[in-house]
Amino acid sequence: RLPETVAEQYASLPPPERTSDTLSGDAREELERLHKEIARLKEEKKQQPKPKKVVKKKPASEKVAKKVPEHPDAVAVIIANSNYTKQGKDIPNVDPAYNDAENIKKYFTQSLGVREGNIIYLKDATRAQLMSVFGSDKDHKGKLFNWTKRNISKVYVYYAGHGAPGTKGTTYLVPSDTDSETVQLTGYPLKQLYKNLGKVPATSITVILEACFSGQSQSGYLSSQTSGIRVVPIMPSAPKKITVISAGAANQVASWEKNESQSLFTKYILKGMAGEGDKKPYGGGNGKISLKELKKYLDGTMTYYARRYYGRDQKAQIRVGSR
Q1: Would you call the peptide bond into 281 cis, given omega within 30 degrees of 0 as the criterion?
Q2: Which of helix, strand or coil describes residue 133?
Q3: How far apart are CA 91 and CA 224, in angstroms?
Q4: pLDDT tens digit string along 38-61?
Q5: Is 183 within 8 Å of 163 (Cβ atoms)?
Q6: H/E segment holding residue 273
Q7: Cα(161)–Cα(246) distance, rounded to whole angstroms?
Q8: Beta-strand relationship, 242-246 and 317-320
Q9: What's the whole-model pTM score?
Q10: Residue 317: which H helix or E strand, with range?
Q11: Exposed, middle or buried, 19 (CB in 10 Å: 0-12/13-18/19+)?
């Protein structure tokens, strides 16, 4: 086989019929043979398949993740009340609250597109801090109201901590500096929260309550007044444009994971919204999760594990404002 480089050299030679007659017969025959060999090699080269272009695939770790659209005008409030022993009186701690709040924050920023700078984040919020954010019975224009763009912003509120009934059953969020014997004086009324939120000029408001209002929690009773008698909590209705998703019915207990690392409600609401709630038998697999599908998912997961772990009933409540 004639090397290609050599063939290229001989290809520049004149054809035999134009060669000088001074060439001997043997040399002329050799020249003809070389020209035939060159022609054959060229034909072979034409018929050979062209090598496929190899495209180097990027490893999965280098693939660009789908970017979540940012919603620059959305506002979120995250409150994690875990430590009650520092400022409160005779109130047990809520161990998973910090971890729950961090997971919710990731969901708000990574899935809902809320900017970090638009999140009001409070750990162990006092009553004064709750009033500063949500307003009071005398002035509804708290920090949340001031941060909201009229008829543009969506608002998300997440609260992890204790809820409790007062002596007459009125329900309260329990600030970190509450006195268990005077919740009705040192707590923040749930009714006031809904009333003030109803005046926030947002396009929609979603409230997620990782709390129960029975006076009993997984870590114990909030008050000696409720440990021996049954106080029936009265849950207020929310104004229109407000959707309330809470961990359980008013007289139920919000359950935690066995290792107390997170609350069952927050764990499964995040799993449901991440796509699990859209799968059968809970959802229709269309890429969207309705409130009805979310409720069905929570009933099949959170409610199941609360019963399996602790033998207690816990059913998430989802209500859309009706007034």
Answers
A1: yes
A2: helix
A3: 10
A4: 777 777 777 766 666 655 555 443
A5: no
A6: helix 264-273
A7: 12
A8: antiparallel
A9: 0.77
A10: strand 317-320
A11: middle
Question: Residue 42's pLDDT is what?
Answer: 75
Residue type, 96: P
DSSP 159-225: EES-EEE-TTSBEEE--TT-BGGGHHHHSEEHHHHHHHHTTS--SEEEEEEE---SSEETTEES-HH
Alpha-carbon distance of 248 to 303, in angstroms, equals: 9
Q: What is d(CA 32, CA 143) in angstroms, rounded to the nearest whole number?
A: 97
Token pair belonging to 38: 């060159």
Measure the CA–CA gap between 11 and 121, rounded to whole angstroms: 81
Tell me the torsion sign for CA atoms 89, 94, 95, 97: negative
For 131-177, the pLDDT digits (tens) are 999 999 999 999 999 999 999 999 999 999 999 888 788 899 999 99
Give residues with Cβ within 8 angstroms of 41, minimum separation 6: 1, 2, 4, 7
Q: What are the structure tokens assigned to 47, written together?
A: 């018929």
- Of the CA atoms within 13 Å of residue 250, those in its CB half-sphere come to 16
Tokens 């035939």 correspond to 36
* Radius of gyration over every alpha carbon of the chain, rounded to an integer in angstroms: 36
> In this structure, what token pair is assigned to residue 173?
């969020």
Report CA 301 to chain centroid distance, whole Å. Answer: 18
Q: Compute the distance between CA of residue 95 and CA of residue 106 in angstroms, rounded to an integer.
A: 19
pLDDT of residue 125 exceeding 90, the answer is yes
Q: Phi and psi dihedrals of 74, rounded to 5? A: -70, 145
Place of tokens 């072979």: 44
